[in-house]
Write a structure and sequence with these properties.
Elements (H helix, E strand, L loop, with lengths): L13 H9 L6 E3 L13 H15 L4 E3 L12 H11 L5 H15 L3
Parallel strand pairs: 1-2
Helix pairs in contact: 1-2, 2-3
């Protein structure tokens, strides 16, 4: 997600840059690397939600894909914590939209 400034709580200029990239139809975004951009010891899913919401709004579920950022994520969380948090951050999506984020987008982008 382009290393959003989660620890500072600011969204700009990151959000504007993400929206500019999303305006290009041949781009996609990986829901990844958020926990290491937050405070490694005290982050909560709520800290990450605004950044996830911005990426979802800009790219939509069909161009956003889950990525764990493993092994780098282990500086701040386990793989299971990252995956569980990603599910929590996307809990408001419908089943088909969640399938896009966790399967469909990567399948298309990487030709799997």
């Amino acid at each position: 997600m382009g290393k959003p400034p989660v620890a500072s709580g600011h969204q700009e200029p990151w959000a504007t840059s993400v929206r500019s990239l999303a305006a290009l139809p041949n781009t996609s975004c990986k829901l990844s690397g958020l926990v290491t951009e937050a405070d490694w010891k005290t982050w909560r899913a709520e800290d990450l939600q605004p950044y996830t919401d911005t990426a979802l709004d800009a790219f939509g579920p069909s161009r956003l894909m889950f990525g764990s950022d493993w092994p780098v994520c282990t500086l701040a969380a386990t793989y299971d914590q990252v995956a569980d948090t990603a599910r929590q951050l996307t809990h408001e999506l419908g089943a088909a939209e969640r399938t896009e984020v966790f399967e469909g987008t990567a399948t298309r982008v990487y030709g799997l």
